[in-house]
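Why this split exists: single-chain examples teach little about how molecules sit against one another. For that reason, every record in the complexes split bundles all components of an assembly together and asks for one structure covering all of them. Below is a record exactly as it appears in the raw files.
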Amino acid sequence: MTAFLPLALLTLPLVAALISFALPDTRAAWRDATNIIFALVKLVLVGFLLLQAQGGVDFEWRYEFLPGHDFVLRVDAIALLFVTLSTFLWLIATIYAIAYFERGPNLARFFGFFNLCVLSATGVAISGTAITFFSFYELLTLATWPLVVHKGDEKSLTAGRVYLTYTLAGSAAFLAGILWLKALVGPLEFAAPPDLSPVPTLTLILIFVLLIGGLGVKAALLPFHGWLPQAMAAPAPVSALLHAVAVVKAGAYGILRVVHDIYGAGTVADLGLGLPLAFLASATILYGSLRAVMQNDIKKRLAYSTVSQVSYIVLGASLAGPIAAVGALVHLVHQGIMKITLFMCAGALANRLHIKAVTELDGAGRLMPVTMASFTIGALGMIGVPPVAGFISKWYLGSGGLEAGDAWVIAVLAGSSLLNSAYFLPLLYRAWLLPPQGDHAPVAELTGGWNRMLVLPAAVTALASLGAGLFASFPFSPLEWVSLIVDAGYLR
Amino acid sequence: MIGIEPALLLSAAAFWPLALAMLCVLPKLGPRMITALPLAPLPALAAAIYAPSGTEFGLPWLLLDGGIRLDDTRAVFLGGAAILWTLAGLYAARYLQNDQRAAGFALFWNLVLAGNVGVFIAADAATFYVSFALVSLMAYPLVIHDRKPASLRAGAVYIVLAVIGEVALFAAFLMGSAAAGGSILIADIRDTLAGPGTDPLILWLLIAGLGIKAGLMPLHIWLPVAHPAAPVPASAVLSGAIVKAGIFGLLAFLPWGTTWPISGTTLALMGFAGLFIAALLGAAQSNPKTVLAYSTVSQMGLIMGVCGVALATGLPAAALLPILALYALHHGLTKGALFLGVGMASVWLRNSRPFFLLLMGALALSLAGLPLTAGALAKAAVKGPAGEIGAALIGFSALTSGLVLARLMFTLPSATPDKNPPPAMMFAFLALVIAALSAPFVVYGQILGTDPDPTADLAKKIVEAWPLGLAVILAAAAAAVGMQAPRMPEGDLLEPLRRTALLAMAAFHAMSDTKASSDISTETDDAPPALTNIERIQAAFADRAATAVAFALISGGLFFALI
Amino acid sequence: MEALATGHLFALTGAVLVGLGLFGFITLRHALRQLLAVNVSGAGVFLMLGGLGRGAATTDPFPQALVITGIVVAVALTAFGAALILRQAEEDHAAKEDDERGGKT
Amino acid sequence: MSLVFDLVLCLMILGTAAASLLMRSALGGIVFFIAFGNLLGIAWLSLGAVNVALAEIAIGAGVTGILLILAHARLSAMGDPVECEPTSPWMRAAVAVICGGLIVLLSVAVLSISPTDRMGAQIATLMPALGIENPVTGVLLAFRAYDTLLETFVLLGALVAVWAIAPPGGWPQRPASLAIATPVSLTVIGTFSRVLLPASLVMAAYLVWTGSDLPGGAFQGGTVLAGGILVAALGGAIALPRADDMRLRSVLVLGPAMFLGIGLGGIALGRFLSYPVGLEKALIVAIEYALALSIGATLALLVAGKPVPPAAVQEGGD
Amino acid sequence: MSPLDLLVVAPLVFMVLSLLAGGWQRSLLALAIATMAALSVWLMTLDPGTAHVVGGWELPLGVLLRADGLAQMLVPAVTLTAGLTGLYALHQFAPESHASNAQTAAFWPLYYLMWSAANAAFLTTDLFNLYVTLEMASIAAVAMAAMGSVRAALRYLLIALLGSIFYLLGVALILSRYGTVDVTLLAGMAEADFATALALALMTGGLLVKAALFPLHGWLPPAHAAAPAPASALLSGLVVKIGFVITVRLWFEGLAAAATPAGLHVLGGIGALAILFGSLQAIRQESLKALVAYSTVAQIGYLFLAFPLIAGAGHAWAGLSFHAVAHMIAKAAMFLAAGLMLKAAAGPRIADLAGLARAMPLTVTAFGLAAVSLMGLPPSGGFSAKFLLVDAALRQGQAIHAAVMLIGGLLAAVYLFRPLAVAFSGSETPVVPPKAPSMVAAPLALALAALLLGFAGGPLADLATGGAPATVAPEPLPALEDTVETASEDEQ
């Protein structure tokens, strides 16, 4: 029975996807209900798994899908971290998406792929082998593509093309890397790093470059970040889920897995790979922030912010040592909830006030105060203002850098925080302090079903990101959970 | 207060304002919360008075497993701040009663208060940092409360420097905590820093991060524009209590007891430079609130100069902290009272204006260190750790302090309504004046262990007060001949800096615009040029004869490969 | 010996026919003649089969049977090929007539 | 003596083949091809393969020749002169080198193999069980009956394929008329053809019958029948049937169906396509007759070509 | 009684019946599908290697039918493909349909003929019998191609004839040299001498024409592109596989003794070129069906690229079998879907597909799923196949082969996502004619089957290797040191 729980995690979104595909637009209410119910059920299931996992129980489902290659789903503590995040945000994003589109066209397709996306993200999280990971990683690419091109206009199509070009090329590199390594050392399970000693150093380095390069595309590492800002052509709920959880996180999570589970942090350091990766991540952090400052389109600004923020995770992964690992993992969660908040708010603003550019943001705080309040919390979190969650991540990343003897990390974090302020604070300034430009009436955010469903999800995640920081030491908080993982000897 | 656990009291000090802040968000209740402002600091006041030194309380779920504690120094800071916040709150409750943004003001007031209290009682760096951020960033809305362009400009300067300070502090704490083996307790960090092998960078990050808040020259530029921009009660707490957060941070984190000749001397130089320069700049202002703000920079320069001396000489904490706490208390209450006084000046009843000016003069003289006043008490105490040169400088600074405060007296507005000012405001002001003039005496013994003796060596003190006398004479003379004070722009270096920044930003935008456009051209790749030869290629392969030839060649090739 | 020589002789003839057929297939640029060339090649293959199955007294009946099968298969395909050639010519013809008609009007 | 004859025969074969391919005139090439086929038949006779010789002359030369001539005639009628664009001499030289190389390689391979009758003996030991004498028929209808079965379907499939390309309006009509509509020839050929059809039937029946013991068999018989039908149609003695004529369909599938049926009947005895002991010859002959009938009809229709719209039936004879 | 001969005979019976029973195609097809499905299941349950001679006539005289792993995979796949394509064709070639009556009448006999030919080719081990089955397939295939374009069909026929002649030439040499044409007997007798080598080269050349391996592919794109959709599906799915399977039987079983590594590498090299050329051409096509047809050219390349890998470490044999099956099913699905899309579209060009994702979501989904398999993205049969092949290549240190396969996958993504993107584009939903449910269901079912293959990889790989010829590497993993050595040598 327990062996099938991991399967159940995948089945729920699959069934939801199938139902969504099947129900015609005339049954939209049924579809909405289905989506929400399945998300809730999955949340309950994840809750159960969390309790079990805290007691040290891991769930595993194994199937030899090709000779010598096992398809392994393993729900361990680190997987649950990501699963919990995606499940929670799935529910939120679903509610938001329902309100965002109201009763627009092509929603059967949208929700179907949306659910497939969640399935893939869950699969990525609970993959027990490199090849399983790859399968879901690719599925994710495929499931997100229809969402990126959902609008069907020229911009979306270009974005879709760029997206695919980048991600599929990355996947190919990743596949080549894992197969190559597998050919040398046998199956790559995410349990304990295999013995890499017989492999020549140069080969190991090359494979590492392939793996990281492949994953770096989705994680939007420099110089593979180009797809992400373009993918902003997608509807807001997609951007929200894509950027917060699904795609970029899958890449970052994969890099964590590669560094800690395939190579082992020690080997990475011995090979002299940790530092270059950390440099690359740092460069991405700063570059993404700089580019974000230059953007006028809100979503693009957020996208470049994501480029920057996701590299924090990579940075944490590349620095040897448990504290940095905690930082990386916890930022995985924190960035998720903060960024989804920001995107949902941006979407709500675009949807209700047709605000798309930073320069149009004047007075938005008066027109949609709740939304802008949520946005503010998210933005402050991104900057690293305590007690919002971003602060916790940065704290651990910085400590991790110092622990590893890389004090320059502090400078990167500091510089990034300053740049974050530089691109977020003007937004807040305009929204709260300048008078509205147009003749928009204030939006009744809390009355009317659609409005409420559009506004409250962001408020919930904003509060969650506040809570995750404020109550960082509370049992089951992301930080505590991550510490549990690391204390259990994982990622050492 | 029997029956109340001191630890709970202590935590209530921080959480009570937060709870009130949440109430401010409620749409109906929010604007009315302004009247509850005086209630917000009461737990803090109670804690400062009743909670015994050494009270600790762990907050295991919060942040990074933090905690709060109280000791004597902290109690002084907390108590002083609580008094000021209470009375300023009372003042604000009336002052902003009909303000259209009352709810927002109340919200941020409470948040800043919570942060301010948190800074003083934080036992660990994370809690301190969070509280400090709360103080710094949430004070921004207070600064720009009236939304006037000048305020917004001031706010912008404020927020930029505050963020930079936060970041510096963040780095310092991270490095300190790492040096302390991962412990985030303030005590551990300080002890580690006092140990051998500490990176002076940490020290400088701390000084920079906290110094910005405390108005350390030359990082002070935000202060003379931001403090006056806020509404009167907010200015009072900004100058009186909030700057003390920076001072408290320095006291709490700097490694007392070990000698840091270079860092200490540098800090001392910066501090004392501020003491004089800021005062002189302040004397050249025309807005009384700006004058007061410069005075704050000057006074904080004094404290930080003393800190620098102590750092350079390796003075132990016990010999320094109580004294500086006392001085901070004195300055906080006095400056708060002066700010409220500026607010009162325009509403004071015409016929009792002399009484008002008397009160203000007393406050000013006390601040400048007139013998027998509370200020003299604090100044005398502070000369101890300041060393010989420091003491001399402090003594001489009475001249500049006197000048700036004299300038204040001349710039006070003199509108003369014919009805009494609201009693709440009146009460708050008067209470604060009393507190300012008496509190150092009341707590002196408790803090320094000896009873205050303001009359000892009185003659010497009077002689030593010559710079103050000179200041009074100069001021009087200037007034008598109708000499105008020189005019300096608010925020001295700010304007040139702003112009430079504007230029830089313009350049930057020009750059980013070209960047953006080139961006578009690179990221939208054009369709590859249509290959005109496709048809020909296809036709060539589709040709039967060609296929047959290819077939023959392939078979032949295969054959030879097989042989 | 003679049988051996006879067998080789016909087999070699078959080999040459195959080559000839291929040459024709490549150089002749009309489908009908290519069809013919293929048949020549095919005949060559059959002849090779027969020649190499030539025993001292008899010819192996097994390849004989295969050749008969081959011949029938070849004629079936040739017939279809011819039909296709005609059909294509009809289409071209009709298209040309359409063009001419279009040109007149 | 015989070797010399064979050598001359081979040279003639090669000559006619070369002529059929290298002549500029397509019609000339076809004529030489028919001669080539007949010479091949003689070659097969010389190899002692009478069965093959019959098949080659009847099918390889005869039916294929008629097919090609008819196609040429119809192409000419549509204004296609069946001319090839000349290829460049260099190209021809290059191709010649390639083909020469192929010939050389093949020759070496051929010479490395010594011709022998490899399976004759083995077949001879098995023949008595079949009750027939002609080993080729034995191979075709017993040992390799599976090949033959599939082959009959190739033939049937080819006819269906020809149907598939019927022009619009042509389905399910008759093929274009083969009748040569000159009044003088009509009477001559007409009379001739009326006689020839029954004669061909008889001859086909004979060929099939002897085929079990002597050279001959279903394919040869079927071809003769087809020839008879074609000549009859040519003379206008009979009209070729419509493609959807159920009688025609029945005749077409009769052979393959009977083959299949008897093969499937074998399953009852254990194996597909195994004949019950004692009934071998009877069944083989039954299959052969049915096949001959079907093959005859199929070949005739294949030569006649695809169904065309009724109006075109008359035109086709031009 | 055995399914081996019945699988060949049953479609022939249906061919006869279809010629006699004019309007009963519907019930006939149902009966045929049921029969063939039952027989296929029966076939799969046989032990690998089960064989018997037809009619009881022993080798070398008789014809041996054998169910090896390859056949046990391919024949059921044929049943699936042909059966579902038939369901689709039932409407296209219904008496009331628009297709010309001749095509309606002729399609069904040809369809059964092709079905029989495919089964016969996969089941027999007799080289001459294979010649006959090749011609059965050619007749049916050319006739089906002629339903679209007579010119292309004529080209196809002549080239195919030439290929057949040369195949037969090789058979003649083999028969004369060894006195048998049975692959199983030849496996024990064959020697690497001049005649054998020449025979192998000639037969292979002839078969490559039939399999449309670059540069002998010229006939394929016009023929496959022009034919009616169900015909294209059968042509690309079934017919090209026949030539391929015979080549496999020659190189790895019958004449394995003469198959030198150099020869294998020549084929592998041509396969690599085919992948690249076919993909690049597909990218440049303007017409949808031509694109899909060129995709076949590329995919055939994989089959031959695998040749040099078969004997080495890894599971290249299973990968090869897998790819044949996966491509058959996926390509059929794609052609059927493309057929439906083109019926609804304004024209044959890719650009004419705009908006179809909204108008016919199920069909576009089928196209997309088939594309997933063809691109080799998980989870799909195509992925499993490519995975095994790349894995084998890397384990043997053949980095270039691996790279070509991965690049081929990327190029496939480039050309296959193009029509999908167009289908998603636009804002208007074109009005499409109503379609019979079975017409929509057929490509979808096939595409799903291609996808599900990816989940059945283990059992199917076992099946494929179960009856594999002796030359295929037996699977114990070579010692670690060996592979490392090869890899490192490759590095240097």
